[in-house]
Amino acid sequence: MTKSVLGTIVLGYRPLWSRQRELAGVQLFIEVDPVHPVDARHLLRTLEEMWTPQSPPLLLSPQTPSLLHELLEHAPARAPWIEVKSEWLDDWVTLQAVFSAHERGLFLVWRGDSAHLPDPELAACFEKCLLTLSDQDCVLAARAATDGLDSPVLAGQLYQGIASQALMRHCLDQRGAQALAGWPTDDVLHSYRSNSMHPSSEVVSKLIRVVRADESMEVIEQIMSQDPVLVYRFLAHANSPTLGLQSGIDSLRRALMMIGYSSLAQWLQQQMSNAVEDVDLKPIKSAIVLRARLMETLLDAGEEEELRREVYLCGLFSQMDTLLGEPLGTALQTLPLSERIYDATVAHTGPYEPCLAIACAMENEDTVHTRVLCEEHEMDIEEVNRVLLRTLAALYVAPANGEFGERRRRSRSRTFGS
Length: 418
What we know:
CATH class of the largest domain: Alpha Beta
Shape: globular
Number of strands: 8
C-alpha cells in the first residue's frame, strides 16, 4: 500500500492577521521525515483537494532546502505562496530554482531580516517579503510611530516577530503592512493585568440580534463559542446560586437550555455595559478558538456530541489564565467542569491531554515537538496532519482582509478548488 505524503511530513501553522485584526491567511510549516523522501507533487495535490475557494490563503514554509527545491520545481502557477528563506539563497542551485519558478508564475515570498533586503534583480522574483525587523529598525520604527519621521516599515509587506502592541499598530495602522505573522499577545494582555477582562461587544451584539430573531440553539452556541471570556462568564452565571437552577451545569449547551431565551437576552443586555471594543484582542481569542476546533477534531468523538462539546470547551478554556490574569487552576475550579478538562489543562494528564499537547505544539514552527508527542501518545502523524489541514481549510477569511487573499479571489486560476 502506498504511503500517503501526509505520513512523511510534520506540519505546524501560524495565522496571518490583517489590518482589520482578522485572519488574512495561514503560514504552513512543513518538516520532512528524514527517512522518507517527499513527493512535492503529491503534497500539492493533497492540499488542492482539501482546499476550497473560501479557505484561507496558504503560505507554504518548507523547513529544508530539499523540500523547497521540490516545491519550486513542481508547483503549478495556481499553487499557494511559497516562502524562500534568505539564507538559502546563498546556494546557486536554490537561486536558479527561484528564477525559474518566478518565470513560471509562482507566487514567492522572501523571508529575512529587514536590514538585508534582496537586490533589485532578485527582489523582482518575489511578490512579498516576510520581514523580521532588525534591532535598529525596531528603534527607528518606534520613534517614527510617535514623531512621524520616516519609518523602516514597508507598506504592503508581511512582518513577523512583532512583540510590542505599539509596534504592531505602527506596522498595520500607520504604515499599511499587509499582515502580521503571529501576534504580540503578551503585550496586548499586559494592560488587562490590573483590569477585568470583559467579553467582546461585537460578539455580544451579534448574540442579542440572533436571540431576538429566535435563532436556533445551535446558532447561539456557535456564536457565543467565539469568545472564551463570554462562555466562561455565562457558565459562571448559570451556576450562580441566585438563579436557583440545577447545580453542576458543566456545558454551554446545557446552560443555554436551562436558562432559556428570555433570561439569556436579559443577561446579554447586562453584559453590553461592560463589553469591550478592543480589536487587538480579536486575534488572541480567534487563536484560542482555532485551538479548540483543532482539539475537537483530533479527538474523534464520533456521534457523541456531548463529548465533542466537552473537548472543545477544554481547548477554549486552556488559556483562561492569560485572559483572566489568574492561575488556570483557580479560574477553572470556580466552575463545575468535567474533571477531564481540569486534568488536561492544569494537571496535564487524562484522556484529553495528548490532543491538547499536540494542538499547542502545532501552533509554531518547531515541528520536532509535534513528532515526539505523536510517537509518545501513539497518534498517527498522517491523521494528525490531515486533521490540521481540514481544520485550517474550514476557516473563513473575510473579503476585506487585504491583497493576500484578494489576489487569489480575483483569479480563479490561482484559487484552490477551481
